[in-house]
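Throughout our pipeline, every protein is held as a single compact record rather than as scattered files. Nothing more is needed to write down the fold, since each code stands for a local backbone conformation. For reference, a complete record is included directly beneath this paragraph.
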Amino acid sequence: MSPLSQQSQLKQTNSIQQFEFIPDWLLSRPDFKEACKAMEQAEKERIPLILDIHHLNRSEEDKKILSDYLTNIKFFIGLPPAVIMETGNRLIKEYFSQGEKMIIKGAEADSMLIVYKGSAEVIIDGVRVAYKNEGDVIGELSLDYRMLRSADVIAITNLIAFKLMRDDYESAILNIKRKEKQKTIELLKIIPLFKVWSNMKLLLLTTLLNSRHFKKDAVIYERHDPSTCLYFVQEGSVDIYAYVPIEHYNKWPTSVSQWLIRQVNREYLIKIATVTHHQYFGEYELKDAKLRVMKAVAHSNTVCLILNKDHLYENFSSSEISDIIQQGMVKMPSLQELQDKMMKDLKSRTTSENALLDALKVNFINLEGRDSILDPKIKRLNPWLTSFRKRRTESVEFLKKNIVFENTKNIKVKKVKKKSWETFK
């Protein structure tokens, strides 16, 4: 990792603003990094003490420490800084002993909890269904829908939690979430499939969606992953790739009566689609509960709304699910179509390069040789040839990066008859 990237990482993980003025050589020292981690930990341990101070009496540094802590919690990602600051002003510190019930099933939902230290378990009808650890949020869904508590939550260890009361939650967070849901409904209405859906049905769909951020080049899912979700692109774009197996054969004589046949099996990664905002992907494998056969990669920083497959089948009819799959944005080509496209691409790269060089009567077999081997009339083309060599090298490197599997096998035969050779083509 370069010193510059280390500096960037330290800026993100530590609230001390002076880091941006510290030289790179110091930022790269292991002992300095350890000192930074210790300072980070000290700041985190200050948070319960900060909550003991009325928010009007907190210093700017204390407010920033608390806001940075909340910003790094998954629940608050994407919320405006002013909302996060207001939430910090309203939090109440609360302690729970090991085995104590933090939330009781059937009780009225009056607050949301953030686990600061310790862990808890979620129990429904005597069965543990989930664990809650540091940074997890508990009880927010009951506040969203004004429902009674649907599960017991019991502290596994002595636990410190930060409580946000219902009135504070509604004034600081719920209005923002409602606005986000309205934006989501507007996004869904742009998709042709959902234009005819009622607002009530779209509202149901928004309650089932979870938002997730993907950085540029992040792999969203890979081939052979379980097909568990449908993805709606809210911001950014996603590239969809397919895998294409190609077989190559070459033969040449090694003696008067013996030939060598080289069989090369390669598998290429080829981009078949780019899904942008107001479109969805991941539907192809959902119908038959297949494993993923494609690969999805974030083309840019991307925000996706994710619908779990179980929720899809529980809340929508078979005809609606069939429409979602059939009207999907990504159509998987047949294997033959993929192979034809890949072979055409490979051939076009070589053909176009050779055609240019043939037209100029350039000895492209020995482009890396001395200039004196070229016709003096075309020495003026040297700058072009230098650029051409660079482009060709980049093209080869691009193809290499897209080879995900390669296997070579040599077969010795005494004699290659025409009919026998046809079987290898």
Remarks:
- Confidence is low (pLDDT under 50) at residues 1-19, 370-374.
- The longest strand covers residues 259-276.
- The radius of gyration is 30 Å.
